[in-house]
Amino acid sequence: MEVLKVSARSVPNSVAGAIAGVIREKGAVEVQAVGAGAANQAVKAVAIARGYLAPSGVDLICIPAFVNVVIDDEERTAIKLIVEPR
Questions:
Q1: What is the four-CA torsion angle of 26, 32, 37, 43, rounded to 10 degrees?
Q2: Within 13 Å, how many C-alpha atoms sit on residue 73's CB side?
Q3: Residues 6 or more apart from 76 whose CB is under 8 A from it?
Q4: CA 48 to mean position of chain CA atoms
Q5: Are strands 74-85 and 60-71 parallel, antiparallel or unpaired?
Q6: What are the tens digits of pLDDT across the range 7-46?
Q7: Do residues 45 and 10 touch, judged by C-beta distance below 8 A?
């Protein structure tokens, strides 16, 4: 499954376009965000992507979970959003 990493500075519309593109090509995508700002941008992007895909009859669901990631040799906890069509 393709992984998209979102930061607090990510533009939600751009991330939403990436999510929609991966959903169309591969059927599912994992969105990872470390920190409150990044999680906020990621959730906004999923909501926007849902609007992008709805006219073509695709309804998205989002499954949240935690995942440990290594950043600069330090283990951090990230939010993982698995996004797939219903």
A1: 40
A2: 0
A3: 34, 68, 69, 70
A4: 11
A5: antiparallel
A6: 999 999 999 999 999 999 999 999 999 999 999 999 999 9
A7: yes
Burial of 82 (0-12, 13-18, 19+ CB in 10 A): middle
pLDDT for 1: 87
Contact 30, 4 (CB under 8 A): yes
Amino acid at 28: A
pLDDT of residue 8: 96
Quick check: 51 and 20 in contact, CB under 8 A? no
